[in-house]
Specification:
By secondary structure, the protein is α+β, with helices and mostly antiparallel strands. It contains five helices and three strands; from the N terminus they run βββααααα. A three-stranded antiparallel beta sheet has the order 1-2-3, covered by helices on one side. Helix 1 packs across helix 2. It is globular.
Length: 169
């Protein structure tokens, strides 16, 4: 395993893992991002949800560059790649929160409440009843989605700014 990148925030690092396929004997190389986010609470805070999502986006970009370098495949934009697999031994709640957050951001037409209700319902059906199972997880998830949507929403000029832009000297 070779360390290939360390984030300036020191909350994650990226590795290339070299292995041998036990069925074919062929060498394999995999890209692994290790997130070392310090979650001290049982529920992710909205900013922690956003940071974990950013780390996933960074991994997708590195994966695209890795594929081009290793396999000489055309580089796909990171938004066309599937999300990386998340492996954790701590349970499903925080991972489910991150999965639901990323899915909700893709749903631009739905209200946040409708999108999350559908995502959580499908997640519980497909992954089990503990998929975003607490009120605190749901509240943090709603806040994180609202923060992200607010950050991406174009700001409207104030009445004074609009009037000033319309003045002809």
């Amino acid at each position: 395993m070779e360390k290939i990148a360390l984030d300036e925030d020191s909350d994650h690092c990226c590795y290339e893992l070299y292995a041998k396929d036990c069925m074919t004997g062929e060498p394999k190389t995999m890209l692994i991002t290790q997130a070392g986010l310090k979650f001290t609470e049982k529920v992710l805070k909205p900013r922690e949800i956003q940071r974990a999502s950013t780390l996933m986006d960074m991994h997708k970009q590195r994966q695209s560059e890795f594929n081009q370098r290793i396999f000489s495949t055309p580089q796909l934009s990171s938004d066309r790649q599937p999300d990386p697999t998340v492996i954790s031994y701590a349970g499903i709640g925080r991972n489910a929160t991150l999965i639901a957050y990323r899915e909700a951001l893709l749903r631009t037409g739905d209200s946040t409440d409708n999108a999350l209700a559908d995502i959580i319902s499908r997640g519980r059906r497909d992954r089990g009843p503990r998929f975003v199972h607490s009120a605190a997880q749901l509240q943090a998830l709603q806040e994180a989605v609202d923060l992200a949507k607010d950050a991406n929403r174009p700001t409207r000029p104030t009445a004074a700014q609009f009037a000033a832009s319309r003045l002809i000297p």
